[in-house]
# Entry
Amino acid sequence: MISKFDSLYAGHVDIENIGYGGTPINDRRYDNAHLSTALSKAQSIATTMDGLGYTTFWMAEHHFQREGTECIPNVLMMALHLTHVTKNLKIGCGFNIAPMWHPLRLAEDYAMADILSNGRVVFGLGRGYHTREVETFGSPLIDQDANRELFEEQVDIIFQAFNNEQFSHQGKYYTLPPEVPYRGYTLKELTLVPRPARLPVECWQPIQGGSERALAFMAKHGIQGMVGGGSAEGGAMHNVVLKWQAEHARIGQHIDLGERLCFGFHFYIGNSKEQCIRDAAKYYEENMKMFGELRLNRAMTDEQVEIMRDPLRAPTAKLPRIEDAVNSGGFLTGSPDEIILHLKNLERSYPGLDRISISPSLGVPEAVILEQLERFAKEVMPAFKGSQIETRLPEAVK
# Structure
């Protein structure tokens, strides 16, 4: 049953002239002072969530985004800071992009954050999706096979370092330690200092395509999965949930449908679904301008991507619309009762699901994010098991 509510903020600054008819994504450029407001914005969101009963505030690691879209380059550093200005909220790394790190530096930094935060920083790993970021740091992304191969070796190393007092590794990309002379002996093993205080480490990873290889790898390491709802496939991607259950069964673990997963949604709460669609359309469209270019919406054609770059053609062209995302279940919106009904239906379909994440679309300003999070917490969250406040359920779910 759903009892944990998270939110993810990828780090966008407040931007102007948004939507399909607004400024093209590649034409946006902000100065350093404005780009830096992503940090204070993250703090405002975290401190607001902390007093409202949310479980985890997730942030995303990104680099070089002068467009103002994803502007937090070190989520571990930011997460540790946020644990100092909040009391109960967990702060999640959603996600550290392993190909842009040396795996042992990432393991050390997380271990320090785990100890210094008393377990309030949550680990997360990803492969990356911006060529400007990953390739600039010297790792492959255009070559997806090489990217996955590197990522898997890095994750193997990270968990070896976490879970063993001494370890060594020999692979395609890393030999750890190098066999070098050290204080009168030849180096054969390493010890991560410090190791995380809490083992096994809770770790999360995004699920995009949901290949059997990816899901099996996650199951092997005990990594939990975040399933995004905003893709063209829509909703919770039921086939991925079935494959997730099957891959755990292969290693002798029985899990219920939805277990060890978090379903993520862009959301907008208001007085009615119709009003929310009108108000949130420009935010949805700005999000598509960002992610459509990166081919994270697999249903988009090259022609549609080209049209999105033209604010004169895009508003009337055949492009993804918020109505389609709402109808497919990928964009969570409407009145509190409508949102409760949607989530209660998810509970019935996925009895192992205990966590959802609600996230603002790209372009939603700070004041609106804070208002939306507060309203969701007070008018939706109390309807679910584990809440300390009871609320009236809509007739359709009684």
